[in-house]
Amino acid sequence: MAQTLVKKIGTQVWIHCQGRTFLVDTPSARKRKRTAHGSAEVDGKIRAPMPGKILKVLVSPGVLVKHGETLLVMEAMKMEYALKAPLDGKVKTVKATVGSTVVLEEILVELEAPAK
Amino acid sequence: MRVAIVNRGEVAVRIIRACQELGYASILIHSTPDKHTTAYRIADETYELEGQAAADTYLRIDSVVNACKNVRADLVHPGFGFLSENAAFAQALEEAGLTFIGPSAHSIALAGNKIKAKELAHKAGVPTVPSITNLDSDPQKQLEQARSIGFPCIIKAAAGGGGKGMKVVRKDSEFFEQLESASREAKAAFGSSTVFIEKFLETPRHIEVQIFGDKKGNLLHFFERECTIQRRHQKIFEETPSPSVNDSLRKSICEAALSLATAAHYYNAGTVEFLLDGDRFYFMELNTRLQVEHTVTELVCGVDLVKLQIEVAQGHELPFGQADIIQRGHALEVRVYAEDSARGFLPSIGKLTEVKLPLGPQRRFDFGFESGDEITPFYDPMIGKVITWATSRRDNLARMYATLCDTVVFGIHTNIEFLKDVLINEKFERNQVSTRFLDQEYQNGFTPLPPTPEQETEIKKALSSSQGPEAQFETKSSAHEALVRSPWSEVWRA
């Protein structure tokens, strides 16, 4: 309880103190992330939230999708996860293919705001 | 005796240790990535099945049976999951002259198919939940069948277990999507896409009975376990004795379990699972294997179920009778998963850069990985189990909380903080729960508490001193504040 355990791996620091574990970005990494990394709501890019396999691709370029609509289904550790549209929009590109293995943060689908 | 273990992770470790106590040679049959696990390091001998995915390794009957023959095994322990409830595997081993540590291929086929198991329960006079087991091939008719049971209903894999291939359907419009998804998961996890539909009870509890038989026809039970705390049908908390069962209910549910086991001519370890709705219980399934949560029964009944499995498989008689088995104290198990609970419970994959499981009174850690090992995307996300025992449930919840506070996993995210959050939930403490408790309580996800000011200070200190590419150090912080301040002090006063 009284001991604080710290381990830095790359740009992240794991800390266990007072009965809890925390994962914190180093200050420099935090700054880089803020400038380089938009959220999907902003940039329309659907990224793999985990490494895994693509089971289903339910959309194709040019299709209009609604917020919450399932775009892809992927699998990791034997469980299925549906990736849903974070906004209403039009599918610009589909980079994921059924059966392929993707890495964390890989861009799978790009959406763009529908023409007004 | 030579025992082949066809499994991985913590259960492989558990079985290897049992073999070592018995003085038997343990031979681990493992996939390529599983060289970097505790089981690989502690097994007497190892044999590699080249490949990564379970379908190419642990689930391949032909190569597994070959491996068992090649290592000259006398006995084969399948652990749980994978081929543990596969009748064809048990049969293939028998034909190869090897002894399967588990029930007969006949019992597995009977019980492993959830549809046949329901018929068995009828015969044994054990109540079951209303269901459709003969799904039509025509989609429109399937929908009508589902409607005849009424929504909500649940689609389950006929060959399933462990929460995989299970989908709840709340309305017509969800039916086909969920049916397809359940079949697909069933196919991937169990090799068969056959599913059935069951009435979905809204607020049931999950109670199961540990049964055990020898090949001479003796059958015993080791009382019940309660596994009501589940997330998406996956058990997370398991305890015994059940706080929801009184002595008369305990007696009737254990007797029902034994009648079913008798009807199945059962031997070796098995578990009869029931749903408890008020004071009525319904048979759900018969699991023909060791359960993940066997540990709590071991602590409360003072028995080694894995050693007993190995003894009984060799034809030995059970060394005690029903009257010798008593429940003493309270045991609780929590499952530690490689997942990011705070980010939608997504799987977390990567290297375990640090694992610390500090010893303490009545704590048991069943883990399959150590510092430096890798959690891969190929298998189940469970990395280990924490089990505690105390004289009362109340004391034990506090003991588990303290134990989880001491447990350290770096490198991947785990559900430890989530487990602690459940532990201090008043409804859990008062046992006002159902199998849907977690899904309701966390329907908007799980948000960990922000760090306390003291923790903030520690984090800042750690950040400022973590210079260089791979810093690692320990410092002293201001003593036992976290424990004194923990929500427990509030809960216990209430």
Supply the CATH class of the largest domain in chain B: Alpha Beta
Largest pleated sheet of chain A: 4 strands, antiparallel
* Strand portion of chain A: over 45%
Backbone structural class of chain B:
alpha+beta
Average pLDDT of chain A, to the nearest integer?
84
The CATH architecture of the largest domain in chain A can be given as Beta Barrel
Written account of the structure:
The complex is a heterodimer of chains A (116) and B (494). By secondary structure, chain A is mainly β. Chain A has helices spanning 27-36, 40-43, and strands at residues 3-9, 12-17, 20-25, 45-47, 52-57, 64-65, 70-76, 79-84, 89-94, 101-102, 107-112. Chain A is built from 2 helices and 11 strands. In chain A, the strands form 3 sheets. A 4-stranded antiparallel beta sheet of chain A has the order 4-11-9-6. In chain A, strands 8-7-5-10 form a 4-stranded antiparallel beta sheet, with no helix packed on it. Chain B folds into 4 domains: 2-101, Rossmann fold; 130-199, ATP-grasp fold, A domain (Dna Ligase, domain 1, 2-Layer Sandwich), CATH 3.30.1490.20; 205-441, D-amino Acid Aminotransferase, Chain A, domain 1 (2-Layer Sandwich); 453-493, no CATH class. Chain B has a 5-stranded parallel beta sheet. A 4-stranded antiparallel beta sheet of chain B has the order 6-9-7-8, covered by helices on one side. Chain B is globular, with a radius of gyration of 23 Å. The model of chain B is unreliable at 477-494 (pLDDT under 50). Strand 1 (3-9) of chain A pairs antiparallel with strand 26 of chain B.
